[in-house]
Amino acid sequence: MKAVLIILTLLGLLAICYFIPVVRSEQIRIAANFDNAIAQVKNPGNWKNWFPEIRERWQQDSSSVELINNKEAKTFTINAGTESYKVKMLTPLSYLVEKRGNGDFSYFSFTVLSQLSPDSVTINVSSPSRLLFRIIPFLAPTENIKTIHGLRNYLEDPIAHYGYPFELLQVTDTIFLVNQYLSSKKELFVGIQDSFSVMQGLLPASNEPQQYCVSYKEIPNDSVSVMLGIPVNRSLQVDKPSIRIIRMPKGRMLTAIYTGSFSQRSLVYAAMKRYIVDKHLIQVSAEYEMYLDANLPVNDSSKIKIRVYFPVL
Questions:
Q1: H-type helices in the chain, by residue range?
Q2: Higher pLDDT, residue 21 or 225
């Protein structure tokens, strides 16, 4: 009987704790720089990238997502299907989020905190809760925390944030047969084909299958500085004024694979340059691209598959 009384007393106390309101706070660390984090939060159009429910609705049917921005009131509302999210900027770093839908209402706030480390930020999330959930944390709702986890997942995923999967590779010494020259844009593609044909003729039959590497740099007067390269097994004697052997020293390469039209490949270059800045890397020499299927472009609309390399420290 005494044990039953104790159990009933504990249950009664827990029931009382459920009705005592408290504020629940939690900090979430994100491995991303402050500027990238705040850009995703301050721009209402970016919330579809990371806010889980809005992102899911956007991917299913983008026409069902509506953004209403009231700049004067420092609020914006995102209607996503049957749910509505009203966001108010309390300060440039703090936001209140109210969710309505299917007869339910909830809210939470969060603040972006800069860190001493340039490569991370902390998000402080606050939401109404019950004293019971402090006593028994695993019973606490996690929806608001999952929302900020959506921001973390987006910022820490190169494919989601930058659009491409990046790799940092360690490269050993590589010997290249190279040809550097100036070309007009009009003659660019024909010149690449012809120059690689000449270079192939200089290679011994024992050389491994050719991989075509190209580095482009546009210069004034509608011209392009072109450097072509073919990895070779060993150093060669070359009797051509414009063609020579160079050795690329070992080091790190930031790489990404791009598949698409030749004219749009600048997108992956721009994304990689952003990544280099964001991660505080240093580019130490010119970037170049390797054609993975040996199909060289013949015009701007040619479909290509390349791996782009940026030598970095």
A1: 2-18, 34-42, 47-50, 52-60, 131-135, 143-156, 158-162, 188-201, 266-278
A2: 225
pLDDT digits (tens, 9 = 90+) for 151-195: 999 999 999 999 999 999 988 768 888 999 999 999 999 999 999
Amino acid at 121: V
Token digits of residue 235: 């150093």
Residue with tokens 């050719």: 210
User: Is residue 288 within 8 Å of residue 226, measured between CB atoms?
Assistant: no
Task: Report the sign of the C-alpha dihedral through residues 66, 67, 70, 74, in that order.
Answer: positive
What phi and psi values does residue 132 have, to the nearest 5 degrees? -55, -40
CA distance 283 to 94: 35
DSSP letters spanning 42-77: H-GGGHHHH-HHHHHHHHH-GGGEEEEEETTTTEEE
What are 212's strand-pairing partners?
291
For the chain, domains (ranges, CATH) are: 19-156 (3.30.530.20), 166-312 (3.20.80.10)
Give the separation between CA 227 and CA 209, rounded to whole angstroms: 19
pLDDT of residue 187: 93
Q: Under DSSP, is residue 305 helix (H, G, I), strand (E, B) or coil?
A: strand
* Kind of pairing between the strands at 243-248 and 174-184: antiparallel
With cut-offs at 50, 70 and 90, classify the pLDDT of residue 64: very high
pLDDT above 70: residue 105? yes
pLDDT score of 206 more than 80: no
**Which residues are CB-contacts of 179 (< 8 A; sequence separation ≥ 6)?**
195, 198, 199, 227, 228, 229, 240, 242, 243
Q: Please tell me the pTM assigned to this model.
A: 0.80
CA distance 49 to 150: 9
Task: Find the length of the chain.
Answer: 313
Helix (H) or strand (E) holding 111: strand 104-114
**Residue labelled with tokens 């991370």:** 120
